[in-house]
């Protein structure tokens, strides 16, 4: 990673276009050009994996398979797999600043099916798909899982109508493979489309000097191909139901804590294999991205395990995680890796020690620094260290305008004084100027903050279902004035690409 640099956090879904959700198409390439123009080094995104019922990229059907919403139709048309008429008049939603996930899920599928049909008509394409299958060892299991899931009415794994399918009875699976052959093939081809378009975009970014910071959730979904095919790696009963789930106890977001619902890892089983699954997962992550942010890093030192008879997330206990042994195993196999540790939340001495042992940069959140007004918060820049990544806030926090409006008068006054807010200066500019001036080697701004967006543009409110992950920017929001401001603070605080 660069010695001193900066970047922008902007998920693919938030890119502007006419398809109802951001894709790997023209607006993504335009965004790379914007980052180059403003002398940024990093484009940070959220997980690119499939999303399920709550539209969260942190609850995926697979730890590796890509979200097919990001496949761009114009690029498929340019490749000869679609005609513009196949999608030009389709209604993908009527609000350009909000993703309507239900609508795009319904509208995109028949268009993708047309592209797959056209793709498979060429023998050379079938050969390309076969080569992709050899490279993507996870692909067949994923395609079969998704085909079965659709066959059972998109129910969660544990609710499938055939228990033998849940338990992967060989004879049962052989029958379904024949019956669902076309659906299985569909899911393989769309993953090929995703792979081709993503790596073309990443290559373009890299040639422009832009590196991608990707995101890896610590847990996988209970309704996932991993739980289906590798149940021994999780704490489950014989029918793949979690016997303990993940979450956190009471925190600033909820008095009852947060119920994430993900199955807890059977760490003793992982240890027996010298953490082979983690080695492969992290290897996939650092292949897909230039830098890998690992979410909820504390869960590797110790994690909150919620009992099966829980009423709230508080019905749990802290349990020891794998600690340094996991990362020593990963390092032995893969060498030194460009990893950022999301070390937010309840961070105790054990979690701090693991971060120190790995030497990964942790995260600092400027917004957290002003809840107290005595200057003691370690999220204030005077406590930052060089080996850290500084944010005003992340996708889980208020945008700067919403955060500042939520402060008390005393907190606002303290923040304005600390950050030396200039007369008539927008609070977003004050905060970003403070952020970029910090000693942290990397500073990342959320796109909503750069664009001076209101509280309603927040990406996610933890522990809530619905209304999240929807914000999209308008192309006209990114004015020359906003670009000039970003380039100015990047230059003044010596974060430009050298």
Summarize the structure.
The chain has an 8-stranded parallel sheet. It has a 4-stranded antiparallel sheet with strand order 5-4-7-8, with no helix packed on it. The mean pLDDT is 95.
The major sheet is characterized as: 8 strands, parallel
| SSE series | EHEHHHHHHHEHEEHHEEEHEHEEHHHEHH
Structural class: alpha/beta
| Estimated share of beta-strand residues | 5-15%
What CATH architecture label of the domain at 5-97 and 190-219 and 261-303 and 319-492 applies? Alpha-Beta Barrel
What is the CATH superfamily classification of the domain at 5-97 and 190-219 and 261-303 and 319-492? Glycosidases
Provide the spatial order of strands within the biggest beta sheet: 9-6-3-2-1-12-11-10
Could you tell me how far the N terminus lies from the C terminus, measured between alpha carbons in angstroms?
Answer: 12 Å
Enumerate the spans where pLDDT stays under 50 for 5 or more consecutive residues.
none
CATH class of the domain at 5-97 and 190-219 and 261-303 and 319-492: Alpha Beta
Give the number of helices: 18
In round numbers, the mean pLDDT is 95
Q: How much helix, percentage-wise, in residues?
A: 25-40%
**CATH topology call of the domain at 5-97 and 190-219 and 261-303 and 319-492:** TIM Barrel
Radius of gyration using CA atoms only: 23 Å
> How many strand units?
12
Q: Rough shape?
A: globular
As an assembly, this protein is: single chain
Family: Belongs to the disproportionating enzyme family.
InterPro entries: GH, Glyco_hydro_77
EC number: 2.4.1.25
GO molecular function, one term: 4-alpha-glucanotransferase activity
